[in-house]
Amino acid sequence: MITRDLRLTPSASAKKLKINNNIQQKEITSPRTNSKEEVSDNYRKAIFTKRHLFTLAGTFLLLIGGAFSVYMLQPQFEEMNLSRMNTIGGMILLIVGSFLLIFRMSFLAYIAKLFFQYKPVNSVTDEELPTCTVIVPAYNEGKQVYATLLSLTNSDFPAEKLQLIAIDDGSKDDTWEWMKRAKEQLGDRVSIYQQPHNQGKRHALYRGFNLATGDVFVTVDSDSIVEKDTLRNLVSPFVTNKDCGAVAGNVRVLNNEKAIIPRMLNVSFVFSFEFIRSAQSVLGSVLCTPGALAAYRSAAVMNCLPEWINQTFMGQPTDIGEDRAMTNMILKQGYHVLFQRNAYVLTNIPEKFSSLHKMFTRWERSNVRENLMMSKFAFKPFRNGSKSGTRLLLVNQWMHMLTAYPLFLVMIVLLVLHPVLFISSTLLSILIFSSLPVFFYAKKYNISEAFWAYSYSIFYTFGLFWITPYAMATANRRGWLTRELPQKK
């Protein structure tokens, strides 16, 4: 394989390098943060425009209108329910619906119980920190990869214990030029490599894993910014827990200042990571270590690396879901997978619907594949200790997928036969069930941003409901879907 390796001699002392880093940071347009307090401050400063206010006002009008309609249409609801109970199909639907509701509520209560038991691991001392290799794969990332590398070198992590590797996966834009600029700026603190052509993120990471020398491997997406204490917080569980095989970071949205979709997803991410993954971490079974920020015990990675790089699905090489696949393979070895709430990373997400649904489709296809893989070992004695919680997490994943088609069909039927009743009851359900992430975000950060959870639920329910059924039907398809050149602004 023909590859390019650029190694430059440092052009300045460490003191001068630090000064230059600070100067270069001023050129970066993406926001950076250095503490948990500053993370929340970043969201408090998010701009509210007339468009935002109009969107939120429209959200509340819809939800309140839906709740009022349900109240006013009670006779019609009662008539519809009575007619259902007079048919076998209606009775089956009622029984199945009640079971699913009870299961969901019981599972949520279980997750809430686990959440209150969760505590992140405090950072260990510099002497205790393991050697760490950070791998940053990049494709068509442009200037953002430069910001990512600078944020990593500004970490509060002993420089002598940190190896930083950046790999350009055959980009078609100026990503390589920005990597070379970072190399000139940072000297021996970073090594940069270029793939001969675009082979996919998995292959870029594979090369990085083989070049890595640290006791812990950390992967960071090239459109992400880490905080100063992120790395040391992320790898500390490997010191305090010998059974820890992988750690998931706490992902927040970087580009949430103006665009509505990132703003909505930021609230969703907080609930997904700080509530759901906190609970999963108590069980030692976080199901997915995110590509934006994850850490792996090097021995665990090397044990499964040949299987991981050669993974196939329905006879074809797998080029998506590398993070979930690695998590599965580490769980299978008997290791625990944890979540570090105090290890923050800010990452860019799509701002347009076309890119967003492609990203969600890729994620769901990966879930289909990896749920199948996990099912092969989860019900076997794959590790010591209790495994019932891990199995329940997998069962919940399957419940979500197995009910996708029936719920989709029921929704279509109700929308055709009873459109007003269906829409109004759906809006009332969104108002009730979305209040949990709203309250969660409001308590941890601020109430004004929390209301975006309502908007996101409406957006997903009526705009992205088809993702899971479609992903299940096309799970064998390959392709990243969103790796096109970024649009110039």
From TrEMBL:
Gene3D superfamilies linked: Spore Coat Polysaccharide Biosynthesis Protein SpsA, Chain A (3.90.550.10)
GO MF terms held by the record: glycosyltransferase activity
Domain Glycosyltransferase 2-like: 133-301
Pfam families linked: Glycos_transf_2 (PF00535)
This protein's record includes keyword Disulfide bond: no
UniProt KW keywords: Cell membrane, Glycosyltransferase, Membrane, Transferase, Transmembrane, Transmembrane helix
Transmembrane annotation, as ranges: 53-73, 88-112, 407-433, 453-473
Name the record gives this protein: N-acetylglucosaminyltransferase
Organism from which the protein derives: Autumnicola lenta
